[in-house]
Structures are given as C-alpha cells and as structure tokens.
Amino acid sequence: MSVVIQADQLTSVRAGRTLFAQLSLQLNAGHILHIEGPNGAGKSTLLRIIAGLLRPQEGQVRLFGQPQRDDPELWQRQTLFIGHKPAVKAELTALENLHFQAQLDGAGAIDPWQLLETVGLLGLEDIPAQQLSAGQQRRIALARLWYSPATLWILDEPFTALDTRGIDMLHQRFAEHLERGGALLLTSHQPLTWSGERLQKLRIEPQDEEFVDELS
Amino acid sequence: MWKWLHPYAKGEATYRLLGAWLPWLAGSALVTLTVGLVWGMLFAPSDYQQGDSYRIIFIHVPSAMFSMGAYTAMAITALIALVWQIRTAEWAIAAIAPVGAVLTFIALFTGAVWGKPMWGTWWEWDARLTSQLILLFLYIGVLALYYAFTDARTGAKAASVLALVGVVNVPIIHFSVYWWNSLHQGATITKFEKPSMAPEMLIPLLISILGFALLTGALVCQRLRNEILKQEIHRPWVHAQLGVAEQER
Amino acid sequence: MSLVETNSRCSNQASTFALLRVIMRRDLAVTLRRRSDVINPLLFVVIVVTLFPLAVGPGPDILARIATGVIWVAALLSALLGSERLFRDDYLDGSLEQMTLLPVPLAVLALGKILVHWLLSGLPLVILAPLCALLLKLPFEAWGVLMLTLLLGTPMLSAMTAIGAALTVSLGRGGALLSLLLLPLFIPLLIFAAAAVESTLVGTSALGQVLLLAGLMVLTLTLAPLAVAAAIRVSVN
Per the database record, which ranges form the Cytochrome c assembly protein domain (chain B) (predicted)? Predict the structure, then answer.
C-alpha cells in the first residue's frame, strides 16, 4: 500500500501557544484519516500545514516521499484543500461559480450543468450565491470533488451545513475516491458513518503550558 | 530535543549577546557624545555668516544621517525576517523603527529651529526638510502596521513587506522631492553648499556623528532586548532571568 | 489506474496565462455585479473637483493653476476609497487562500488583480479627466498631457493600492491605516504628473516628466506584484 502523506514531528505554535508538538501521522492510499479533537486543539491548523498554507515551527510533511519545499507544484496538483471558507463568490451565480472554479482547477472541459445536477443544485443556477443557503453554498464548494484529479483531499469540516442527503452524497463520493486509490484527510464533529479498516483516527488534545516548562 | 529547542534558544542567545554589547555601546556613546557636543557647542568657533546658530548642525546633521541609516537597517532586517523567517529579525524591526522615527523627528525639529534665524520662518518647503517629513510618515506607517495586528508575527511580517516597499521608494521620493524643489524655488539657501568646513568645526561634527551612531546602536540594542523579553515572556529562561534580577534587588 | 500517472504535470506558460485569464474574468464579472463600487469613486472625483471652484472662487486664473493638483489629489483619494474592497471579499470567502494553492506564481495572479482593478478604476478616470479639466478651466492644450499622466499614473495607483490592501486585508477595518501607508508612497507620482502638466502650460516640453512616469510605471508593475504576493501570503496565515 503506497504512502500518500507522511508528517514527522510536527510542532505548531500559534500566538505563543503550543497547539501540538511532535505530532506524526501517515496516510496510505485508499484510506481516510479522521482528525478529532476539541475546539481550538489545532485541527484546522494541522490541515492547513499539510495543505501547505502554513509552515510548522518544526517537522516536515512529505507527499509521495517528497518534502514540500522540493516540489511545491506536486502539492498544488496532487492535493485539494477545501477549508471552512467555501471560496464561493457571493455575486456570481451557482453556475458561474462552478464554471470559474472548474477552470481554475484546470478542468475547463467539465460541463458545469452536469456538475450542477450532480450536487443537486439544478434549478438554482441563475440565483446569485449570496441568496443561497449555507448548505447550498457548501455544495457549490464541494462540487470540486467530482472532477478533481488530486490524490489527497484535505477537507476541513466538509459536512457543515449539509442536509442528510448531502452527507450521503458526500460519503458516496468519498467511497469512489478511495476506490480509485485516493486518500482523504478530514476533520468533522459529526460521526462518520464509515466502517472498516479504511478509517483511521487521530486525536489531538490541547497542549498544556507545562510542556514548555518541562524543557527547562 | 535540541532541534525542537533551537528556535527558542535563539532569543535567549541573542538577548545575552546584546547584553554583552550594551555597556560598551552605551559607554562609548556617552563619551563621544559628551566630547562632540561640548566641543561643538562651547569651544568650536562661530560661523562668520551664521554666528552661533549654525551650532545646531552638531545635532541636526547626525540625526538626519541616521534617520535614513536606521530605515535602511530596518529594511535589511525586514528582508532577513522574510527570507529566513528569523524571529529575532522580526523583533528588530520593532526595535529600530521607533528609534529611527525619533531621529527623523529630531532632524525635522532642529531643521525648523534652524530655519527660523536662517529663513525667518519655522517651516520652509525645503527639499531636505520635506523628504525628512515624508520619511517620518513612512516610519509611522511601518509602526502603525506592526502594531495593528493582534498576532505579533503577522504584524511583524506585514511591516517587513512594507519596510521593503518603502526602501525601494525612499530614493525615488528623495529624488522627486529634490527635483520638485529645484523646480519651484531657485532662491532658497542650501545649507551645506559651503565648499569646506573649518577643521575646528568638522572634527567635533565627526565626533558627534560617531556618538549618534553609537547611541542609535545602544538604543536599538536595549529595545531589542526588551522586545525579546516581551515576546518570550512564557519561556522558562525569561522567568529565570527576571527571577535572578529580583533576587539581586 | 493510478491517479499520479494520469495527472502528470503539464505546467507551462500557457497554463499560467490561462489561469491568469480565468482569475481576471472572474474578477471582472464579480466587480461588474457591484456597479456602485465602480461608479462611486468616479462620482467622488467629480464632486471633489466641483467643490474647489466653490471654495476658492471661479476665476480662471486660480482654477487653471490648481487644476492639475486638484484632479490628481482627487484621483489619489478615490484610489484609496475603493481599495479596501480589492482583496476583502476574496479574503473573507476563502478565494484568496485558494489562489495561493494554485499551481502558478502568486505574483502573476496578483498582477491580474491589479490589472482588473485598473480597468475598472484607473481607465474610467482617464476617460473622465476631460470633464474635470473642463470644470477647472484647464487650458485645452494641457488636456492631452493630463490624460497621458493619468494613463501612466493610474496603473501605479492600482499596484500600490494592491500592496496596501493585501497587507491590511486581515484587519477588519484598514481604511485609515491604508491611507497612512499609501499616501506617502504616492508622492513621486503626484510630483511628476503635476510637473508634466505644468511644463505644458508654460510652453515647454513635458517629455522628460512623461518618460519618468513611464519608467516608474514599468518599475512599479514589475515589483509590486511580488510585494502583493508576499503580503497575501502573510495575510492568509
């Protein structure tokens, strides 16, 4: 089983507070890694570090064995990061959003209408996104999953604001992705309705100040 | 373990290094400034045209020189901070900027005071004064940006980018202001066009310049030490440092 | 089927420009939906220009003398007016962090944003300039040079504004701070542009000043995208 992402000894200090220290993880193709932990434990920070948006204070992340600094382009093409913010333009319609996003992702050949139907937004295509509900906006953001060629998906709370049908739809898509040899790294406060050995869990606990003091 | 400690040890090492330099810098600054200013103010001969009012150059010239110098130094540390992500360099921006701003203000103030007997007005749109005024704005901009963020690191990085943008612009601004000045005013007295300065005036001036350089260095040194303490307040070595200081008292 | 193989890297300049075009088209589409953001700064310029004759009297001597200065200062202030919006929405909705993840240099995308901003703020100002010149009784022979200075100068305004906007985007309200950061940097532009029109008015050639402005514009458009990219990276953290 090939290793997709591997993080060694990551330490992150934000605003003078140690979020996590010497955290290591490994994710193989065809697997899901579910990051758990209370609010403020650093789950989003961890995902942002792995996506390459943040640098850890210590440690490094490898994608297919390559450190990020060696080959940033590999990361940009092989990872897909969808964060809290949906990156949906409020002024543009659902259709335009899908169209531009697909082009930015290098998938200009995708039919945006098809995509619209897939994520269940058909009929809402000419309404500006700001008039759509939070769940509908999230569907626009998540539509990228249906064409993205990236191997590693990094999703921060993907189920937020989705209804049960949306959640089912997403689960189904995750299954297809894993089937194709993709890997999935996500945070979620909702329990994953996922069974089997494909699911791994990693729990982050808030660090105490004591950790710093121990060193002296 | 050492690797993990390394970035934090830097602050401590720098703090101690600066602590070792500080007495020498401060001591020599005190000596050279006393010699330079007392000589300049009391013993150097009067100017045959300007009388005693020229004596303000012993403060004006060094502060104007190092107001520019401090900006360049700040931009260099900003570059280091951005390229190598060195936190001490980020803090150095906060240490240098206020010193530079105060030097700029002193240069402006003494320039205005000098302007009164020379031009008969406190403020003249003289090229030198105008570009000092703009430099003051640039300093204030960097400081305002540095302290605008709740996260100190973001503020330091944003201020670094601005300092670099500023340093590219400073020569352009300088040139444009001089050019503008030459366009609009032909008859202003240019201050330093005297072909040569008598050695009795030049030597105390040079000593004052050296004194200001040392003073600037000492102030930046102390400010950087304070900044390191402030930023690393949660680190054990700071507790130890402050604990020792309390016992000594 | 391995995903790695099917997605072999195909990075080249063509894809960089393709992405640049997409970003620019999206930006244009978004900004054109918010027409008031485009029109208000222009109205601001016209109103400021209208205020001056009321303040200093309508005599052609004084108006013609201050016309260039007034138009240019109004242009600088109007550039600040809309600047906060330049990256604000992108930052809030997450598009900005997605931009940093695209497989093209961020500076190229920053240049795209600058160009779109100029198209919708600088270029209309150039077109509006004759009206302002008319209101301020600027002699007709200087109109061309005034428009030329605006044509060369407004891209610089957009570029500098983008630096300031990218630096302050993560601060909720950056308005006053932004003017503090940017206005000193606009000074050379103001000086050379005003001098170019001035020299036309006194009957000498403005070529020197215009060339200086052109040089500054090239320099600014080369370096500013790098600064904007660095500032964006600072802000999305």
Answer: 21-184
